[in-house]
Structure formats: C-alpha cells, structure tokens
Design goal:
With 291 residues, this protein is mostly beta strands. Helices cover 5% and strands 59% of the residues. Strands 1, 2, 3, 4, 5, 6, 7, 8, 9, 10, 11, 12 and 13 form a 13-stranded antiparallel beta sheet that branches.
C-alpha cells in the first residue's frame, strides 16, 4: 500500500463577490515583517484497488496546524519560519489489515519541527531548510520535505502584470515516498493558472486564482523483498486559491487531484490491477490563532 499525503476539504466559502477591474496589476508576495499567520490544513485521500473479486478501499485523513512567522521582507525576497504545532493522521481500510484501523495518531516526529523558507515576490523558492535538532527518522524528514502543502501555500505567480482572464503556465511535479522509503510515486504535468479578479471572502479582499490540469502523468515503483509493484496512470488537477490582496498570503484554498492508474505486481509473471486515487487539500487561515 502506498503512503501518500492526503487532504480533505470541508470549507464552504460564502458571500463571494468578484469585482473584475480593468487595470492590470502585479501579483506578488509581500507579507509584513514581524507578523504571523496561522493555518489549518486538512486533507484526505481515497484509494480504490480492484483485486481479483475484491474491491479494497483505503481512506486517510491528516490534520495539520501550521504557524508562520515572517522574519524579513525586502524588495527581492521574504523569509519566514514555518512551525507545525499539530500533525495527526487517521488511516482506515475496508478490510481491517492495518493496526489501529481508523484510529487517529499523532505524527510526533514533525510536531515542533520548523522550516525556514525564503521566497521571491513571485512565489519561487529561494531556499528551504528543516530544523533537524528535534531528531526523528531520516525517512520522516524526507517525507515532510516531499509533501506539497508549502508549495500550495505559495503558488507561483505570473511574472507579468495581470488582468481578469490572464493566464500563465506552471510545471507541476510532486514526489511522494512509499512505505519505508522503498520507492516513490511521481506525479507530473502542467498547470494552467488564471487570475479571476478581486474577491471579498472571509472578510478579506483577495485575488481569486484558479489552477487546472488535464495532463497529469503518474508513475511509481515499490520494492519490498521479492515484491515489486509498478504504477502508471493519468489524472486531473483542479484548484482555487484566494490570496490576500495586500500581502499575497493565503486566505483559503481548495485543491483536488484525481488519477486512474494500473498497478502491476511481479517481475516475470505480472498481474495488473486498476487503482483510483482522489486526493483533496484544504488550507484555511485561522485568524484566532493556532488552536
């Protein structure tokens, strides 16, 4: 069974009013130095595997609480410290073959772990380092680096001025570790990103940005002793983000990735099984703090 980072959106965005001005603007990240932001990141995945006469469903949910402290903002960059104050995961299967099926567990190795991040005004990453002083397994550190919630928080913005309807393309490449680091799943493609205009939501004036891809390609391999599995598939991506029009910081967002793949078992005598993935991610600013 593959390990994947998973997210479920439970957010309802109410009273959205789009005001699409004609004057071009420059989208950029410019958070004020010595300020903080707090986020709830909730997500889920549903994996459906058809094997012989059985259909096995796996559901997983993660709940992250993230605090961001803005250390410095200058013309060419912003430097922030990201700290996970909560990280829990719940895994359940239609066939109870995993310990504590359906129980919520804390991901203790990442709670209290900080990430130092420096980005350019367009959201491109200049540097990213993880504090290793807390200890924990190297696998957990690599898993945290491979997750994409940071990329979704600071999505690449257009290098040119935009008006409502403006579009730009962004390469997408997600790598997720499989159990015990014995393989990985790579999802790649191209996002078409479009600026929709100014939106009032959650009592904040925001830029509304949509992301779409219909050309995702998913590949992966997993080795465990004599067992070999290979994954090949295609999928789609849909996302909507609302960024604070004053600072560029995320206010709320929702993303859904759906893939349909074939999983092959064995080296010489291969057995092929269809597998469906649906992964959702919800990021919401918590203006009351990190609790």
């Amino acid at each position: 069974m593959f390990r994947t980072t998973v997210f479920l959106s439970l957010t309802t965005i109410a009273a959205i009013n789009v005001t699409a001005g004609d004057d071009p603007i420059r989208l950029s990240y410019r958070p004020e130095a010595h300020t903080s932001a707090h986020y709830s990141i909730i997500g889920a995945t549903k994996q459906t595997l058809a094997m012989a006469q059985r259909k096995i469903e796996t559901h997983a949910v993660t709940d992250l609480k993230l605090n961001i402290e803005v250390k410095e903002t200058v013309l060419s960059r912003s430097t922030m410290e990201l700290l996970l104050s909560k990280a829990t995961a719940k895994l359940s299967m239609s066939e109870s073959v995993v310990p504590n099926n359906g129980a919520e567990e804390e991901i203790s190795n990442v709670v209290g772990r900080s990430v130092s991040l420096t980005i350019a005004p367009d959201g491109s990453e200049i540097s990213k380092t993880i504090d290793t002083a807390k200890g924990g397994s190297a696998q957990m550190e690599e898993l945290l680096m491979s997750t994409k919630f940071i990329d979704r928080l600071f999505m690449p913005l257009s290098a040119a001025d935009v008006a409502p309807g403006s579009k730009w393309k962004v390469p997408l490449s997600d790598t997720i570790l499989t159990p015990q680091g014995m393989g990985k799943i790579v999802t790649s493609g191209t996002l078409e990103v479009s600026y929709k205009g100014i939106v009032d939501t959650m009592n904040t004036e925001c830029w509304m940005i949509e992301s779409v891809s219909d050309d995702l390609v998913q590949t992966g391999e997993y080795h465990a002793g004599a067992t070999h599995m290979a994954l090949r598939g295609k999928g789609t991506f849909r996302g909507t983000s609302y960024l604070n029009a004053k600072t560029g910081m995320m206010v709320t967002s929702q993303y859904v990735t759906s893939t349909k793949a074939d999983m092959e078992l064995g080296l010489e005598q291969k057995v092929s099984m269809p597998v469906l993935y649906e992964v959702t991610l919800s990021i919401n600013e918590n203006k009351e703090g990190s609790r």
